[in-house]
Amino acid sequence: MDHQSLEIYCSVATELSITRAAKQLGRVQSNVSTRIQQLEEELGVALFLREGKRLSLTAEGERFLGYANRLLILAEEARQMLSPQAPQGILRLGSMESTAASRLPTPLADYHSKWPKVQLRISTGPSRPLLDAVCNGLLDCALVALPGVGDALSPQDLEAMSLMGKTVFREELLLLLPASHPPVTRPDDVVVRSLAAFGQGCSYRAIAEDWLADTTELQKTSIDIQEMGSYHGMLACVVAGSCVSLVPRSVLKLLRDPPDVQTHPVMNVDTWLIWRRNFNTPAFAALRDVLTSTQEEFRAP
After folding, report:
1. Can you give the three-state secondary structure of the chain, one letter per residue?
2. Exposed/middle/buried for 122, CB within 10 Å: 0-12, 13-18, 19+?
């Protein structure tokens, strides 16, 4: 079970296609098929179900994929630590969608100009899955919001999870309401009881649900959640008059033609850079320095 076999397996498992994996790896298909068969023989289990030309992972294949990814990541980390002269190699960064869109372009452009040998791989998602991916070693670091994650995760909980963190941005969260909605000064004033938000695990969704639920018993009604895949979708729901939504002000500033909506400030929330304890490759240390050097520029009032 060598390094190349693990790379081939992870590529096939991700693509679920020998053809696409071979193209991605720059190998001939017969070589990829042979290496997968050899790996299955070595492990003594079938990693894939084969139905004609269709592939799917077996239960054993699903379990092995997590270990294979972590082994490859650990090998990459070791390689970087043995060559600390300059940042290079792969760095896996997770980020909330809003942060990737509104905060990262400038500092990442600066980072790339300084350290072009680093292959920065960026993935986006809600805070809870990103935290789990860092804990499991599938991401090296992530930009997340801690309030409202799961059971209201606090910075003090990071140590128990073998994580470290640093605040790098601050977001002003705005409740967006249809233009025709009556003025809002408190949760009781919100008439529309449908919230457009990302899926479970999103910190901003949890904050919005908690804030909207903070009403008197006479006004308390259930909140209908419309799960969306993008902020553009959330804005469309608000403009259509069917939902409210909680959105960082920085996201609205990205729009050339801001939508005709009402806004109500809810709170300021810090964005944290999270990483595993003792993880400090040159590529990560350089990224942390770049984000730290620009954080004052991005602090909300």
Report:
1. CCHHHHHHHHHHHHHCCHHHHHHHHCCCHHHHHHHHHHHHHHHCCCCEEEECCEEEECHHHHHHHHHHHHHHHHHHHHHHHCCCCCCCEEEEEEECHHHHHHCCHHHHHHHHHHCCCEEEEEEECCHHHHHHHHHCCCCCEEEECCCCCCCCCCCCHHHHCCEEEEEEEEEEEEEEEECCCCCCCCHHHCCCCEEEECCCCCHHHHHHHHHHHCCCCCCCCCCEEEECCCHHHHHHHHHCCCCEEEEEHHHHHCCCCCCCEEEEEEEEEEEEEEEECCCCCHHHHHHHHHHHHHHHHHCCC
2. middle
| CATH class of the structural domain 3-78 | mainly alpha
Fold of 83-168+271-298: D-Maltodextrin-Binding Protein; domain 2 (3.40.190)
Query: 29 CB contacts (<8 Å, ≥6 apart)?
Result: 18, 19, 22
Amino acid at 17: S
> What is the C-alpha to C-alpha distance for residues 95 and 129, in angstroms, rounded to an integer?
10
Q: Tens digit of pLDDT per residue, the chain (301 long)?
A: 788 888 888 888 888 888 888 888 889 889 988 999 999 999 999 999 888 778 899 999 888 888 888 888 778 778 777 766 778 888 999 999 999 999 999 999 999 999 999 999 999 999 989 998 898 888 999 999 986 544 455 667 787 888 899 999 999 999 999 999 999 998 888 989 899 999 988 999 999 998 988 765 545 567 899 999 999 999 999 999 999 999 999 999 998 887 889 999 999 999 999 998 888 888 999 999 999 886 655 554 4
The model carries a pTM of 0.78
Overall fold of domain 171-269: D-Maltodextrin-Binding Protein; domain 2 (3.40.190)
